[in-house]
Specification:
24% strand
């Protein structure tokens, strides 16, 4: 890792399933965050269809604002992180009703800081999956699962996805 970089999340795609299960799938190699804030207005009611899949498993891309089921840890340069903060702040202003740029930027820095903290002690190339649900009070809860490629053991392929 270079001196002026941190670790962050990038979308990945193992197969074409994201293009089928999400209303707006993220492309591979887009910077991403969990993005659970987009479901704050659900008030404990489980969405349906593709929105349910996005709620339950989708990371939010900071480029297309699409969803991805898996993300991997990668290095992000400080200047790229600053651009991500500005872009997310604009998203908060334009799509989420943030009251002003200053508060939107503070919220964006908090979201991006959370991801940097999540990745800090994780090897580059490790893969995260997400399970999002409601707790008994109707609050959104997120559980992250980590697959560290250094710990992976060879295994037999049990299926193959073929494009039709």
């Amino acid at each position: 890792m270079t001196e002026s970089s941190e670790k962050f999340l990038k979308t990945i795609r193992f197969d074409p399933s994201d293009t089928r299960v999400y209303e707006r799938p993220a492309d591979p190699d887009e910077w991403a965050i969990p993005g659970g804030f987009e479901f704050a207005g659900l008030d404990g009611e489980m969405p349906t269809g593709k929105t349910r899949q996005a709620f339950s498993h989708g990371f939010l891309s900071l480029e297309s604002f699409g969803r991805s089921t898996f993300v991997s840890v990668a290095e992000v340069a400080d200047d790229a992180r600053a651009r991500l903060e500005q872009g997310l702040a604009s998203h908060f202003l334009d799509r989420c009703g943030a009251p002003d740029r200053e508060q939107a930027l503070a919220a964006a820095r908090e979201e991006i800081g959370f991801v940097c903290d999540l990745c800090a002690d994780v090897a580059v190339g490790s893969v995260f999956a997400l399970q999002r649900s409601f707790d008994e009070h109707g609050e959104v809860r997120e559980v992250f699962r980590l697959a560290d490629p250094r710990a992976a053991r060879p295994h037999a392929r049990v299926w193959e996805i073929v494009e039709e």
